[in-house]
Fold this protein.
Amino acid sequence: MGNSALKSHLETSQKTGVFQLTAKGLQEFPEELQRLTANLRTVDLSGNKIELLPASVGNFLQLKSLTLNSNKLTGLPVEIGKLKKLETLSLNGNQIQQLPPTVGQLKALRTLNLAGNQITEFPLGLGTLRQLNLLDLSRNGIQSVPAEVSDLQAIEINLNQNQISVLSAEVSRCPRLKVLRLEENCLELSSIPQSILSESQVSLFSVEGNLFEVKKLRELEGYEQYMERFTATKKKFA
């Protein structure tokens, strides 16, 4: 990509606060963006070949949305935690294995998309994200959902297409959790904590494609309470 094209992109971004440069074969985060740290609110660099986010990403203090889907990132710099206004962090389709603990400092974060990475352990330390609505961890290699999940404020957690065989009953203590997606995992019926059905806020519990027939859920204690929540939610959006 020529310098003149990048220059015109930068000029536009200075006015709009939006920098979008997708599928251009970029191998690194454009250094030139540093000139716009005071302006940029949205950056989308999806579909490139970026392997590393520089520490200087922490300088974009006005940033509300950072999207780097389908790149080659293997991790994030600790400086990501400086982005106190960030509401959306979308990193689907990279090679990320774990998150730095500073992600827990993104106090404004509402959406965290990490689908299609190489995460094998459920990320801890996200309970401090009080505004979090959606946590998407689908298409990773996570094998268990630990007790610490109860700290999460998320309204929806998507864990479809992992390798989960262990699901902590503490998930039923998530205070705002309404949608829990666990399709195409390795769960047995005996691995489903009954408290999710009887005691949680969950009104959509999606478990197709595990090691039991979904209709067997009806045999579990608490299924009727779950169906009451499910039906009430459906009526609300009908």
Notes: The chain is about 15% helix and 15% strand. The helical segments are 3-16, 194-198, 223-237. The longest strand covers residues 18-20.
